[in-house]
Amino acid sequence: WALALLLVGLGLVRRRRYSTRAARLGLKPSPLLPFVPPLARDGVLVIAALGYARALPEEPMASLVFLSVAVLVQLERVPSSLRPARPGAFEPVAPDERAAARRGRMWSHLGLDALLDATKPLGLLTLGLLFAALCWLARGDAPSHQLAASVPFAALWLVPTFLSGHARTLPPDMYARLAWADATVERLQGPGRDLRALRHRAANGRVQDVRVGVELDAPQPGLLRLQLLLAASPGISLAHVQVAALIVTRPQSPADQACARAFPHTSAWTSGDRRARLLPVTDELEAQLEALSDALSRARDVDDAGRPSALAPACTRAA
Fold first, then answer.
1. SS3 141
2. How many CA atoms within 13 Å lie on the side-chain side of 16?
3. For residues 151 and 88, what is the distance between their CA atoms, to the nearest angstrom?
4. What one-character DSSP code corresponds to residue 278?
5. Cα-atom radius of gyration of the chain, to the nearest Å?
6. Is residue 306 within 8 Å of residue 229, measured between CB atoms?
């Protein structure tokens, strides 16, 4: 009974922590069994644990059924329901926010979330220690036959607790985004442009995103915004994250026409007097940022017959 209560406690804590982290990122968890409400999932997990403990060792098949139910209600898919971003403004990141981000990154590897996440070193160590403890309980001279019989089932129970709903199914949090933005600014700062880490703060004060703002020394008329960001999309088992460049221009302006010439295969969407383009960026970020500067700077403008952009292959794949 004590082992069953420990397992169900770990499962409940992990699910609550995962739901909280997803909510902070504007996501709604997607359980493998979506027709079971959250509170019902907790109840089913508790009932399955009690039934599992009651059925062992006399009824191993019944225990296996209870175990299967407990595993299924704990499994999570990659969240896909994004909360729409609220109106707000971009501001430079303050030094105290960087210090808070460093502390947050440290606790993300040392806190309770990391303890129950086998994709992180601390969680992997915890899972290994628990497996070692279960193997010790299953030794030949175990004091209780019922306890020894429950060990293989308990080992299976730990799999969804530590390997489902982990950090890699979620997009990067604000701490990770700020660390990426600072590293990008330091690496790509160069002549003809000024890079800064920017936070997007909503009217309610909540930080919704962190991006890298690129200010060109001689931008084309009509260029409103040039930013690098982390774009996340749900995959089959992990959240797919890719660096992208966001270009916002006035329709029909010189900057807009320069984008149409340099990136002809990139889709654009217009809202009022603004036109936005999102360009996927490959690993050659420095060369592609240079190509963006070439296309959007007056001093580096090229004619229609000029050399092709270094971003063209990535844009063609995205189209």
1. coil
2. 9
3. 53
4. E
5. 25
6. no
Report the alpha-carbon distance of residue 150 to residue 4 in Å, rounded: 9
| Per-residue CA distances from 299 to 55, 109, 293 (Å) | 78, 46, 10
Residue with tokens 């959007």: 296
SS3 of residue 237 by DSSP: coil
Q: What is the pLDDT of residue 315?
A: 37
Query: How far is 10 from 112, CA to CA, in rounded Å?
Result: 11
Q: What does pTM read for this prediction?
A: 0.71
Which tokens belong to 83? 């909360």
CA 302 to chain CA centroid, nearest Å: 38
Q: Are 173 and 111 in contact (CB under 8 A)?
A: no
Cα–Cα dist 198/213, whole Å = 6
Give the whole-angstrom CA distance, residue 116 versus residue 108.
Answer: 11
Which sign, positive or negative, has the C-alpha torsion 201, 206, 208, 213?
Answer: positive
Return phi, psi of residue 315, to 5°: -70, -35
What is the model's pLDDT at position 308? 41
- Is residue 92 pLDDT above 70, yes or no? yes
Closest CA to 21 of 164, 205, 171: 171
Tokens of 252: 């029909």
Q: Of how many residues is the chain composed?
A: 319
pLDDT bracket for residue 226 (50, 70, 90): very high
User: Which of 39-53, 55-69, 192-206, 279-293 is least confident?
Assistant: 55-69
Q: Which two tokens stand for residue 218?
A: 């001689």
Taking alpha carbons only, the member of 220, 218, 170, 174 closest to residue 197 is 174
d(CA 244, CA 279): 5
Which residue, among 283, 288, 299, 227, has the nearest Cα to 262 in the 3D structure?
Answer: 288
Could you report the per-residue pLDDT of 240-284, keeping only the tens digit for each?
Answer: 788 899 999 999 999 999 888 888 888 888 888 899 998 888 767
Nearest to 87 by CA among 4, 206, 213, 186: 206
Q: 3-state class of 38 per DSSP?
A: helix
Among 45, 31, 36, smallest CA distance to 75 is for 31
